[in-house]
Amino acid sequence: MAGKDRFSTTTRLRLLGEQTAARVYRSQTRRQARRSRLTGRAAVLAVVLCSLVVALAYPMRQYVSQRADVADMRRQVEQRKAAVEKLRDQKARWKDDAYAEQQIRERLHFVLPGETGYILLDPDAASSHRDDDGATDRPWYSNVWDGLDRADRADSTGRSGGPGRAGDARSGDR
Fold first, then answer.
1. What's the pTM value of the predicted model, to 2 decimals?
2. Which DSSP string do the residues of 38-107 spell out, in sequence order?
3. pLDDT tens digits, residue range 55-102?
4. How far apart are CA 8 and CA 25, in angstroms?
5. CA–CA gap between residue 78 and residue 99 (Å, rounded)
């Protein structure tokens, strides 16, 4: 009869229930083991660390910002020292009469008595200042529109006497 009980429905259900109960018991013990990892001390430590991070975040940001400002100021000081040194060198050069004479002759086009002064104009400089380069290569109506645009720009800057007086701007170009 023992062999018959082994395969009966009641026996099978009892075994199934015991297995299920064992699984539930094991899962509950695992959950309890997981819960027990976070103790009260760990929670207090986490809160203290978070409060320290929050409390130190702003001062650390200010410290880093001020260090960057200090580095920028030092760089500016070095640049200004270099500029002062350059100006001192230039001042020392201007104390030399030969240098001053050379600069006066070059910049102001002075000549000594008995010398003949010549000024050579760069032929390329005159053509580079013209606004209508290549005006002959374009159709006539493009040149007319460019002239009107130039007159409008002159009016907007106030050189021709005010808005709506494009005739004055054209008469000044003649």
1. 0.38
2. S-HHHHHHHHHHHHHHHHHHHHHHHHHHHHHHHHHHHHHHHHHHHHHHHHHHHHHHHHSHHHHHHHHHHH
3. 999 999 999 999 999 999 999 999 999 999 999 999 999 999 999 999
4. 26
5. 28
CA distance 5 to 15: 12
**Cβ neighbours of 160 (radius 10 Å):** 21
pLDDT tens for each residue of 141-164: 888 888 888 888 887 776 544 444
Reading the block at residue 33, the tokens are 């083991």
* Residue 169 DSSP SS3: helix
The answer to whether 169 and 155 are in contact (CB under 8 A) is yes
Would you state the pLDDT for residue 13? Answer: 84
Q: For residues 46 and 82, give the distance between their C-alpha atoms in angstroms, rounded to a whole number.
A: 53
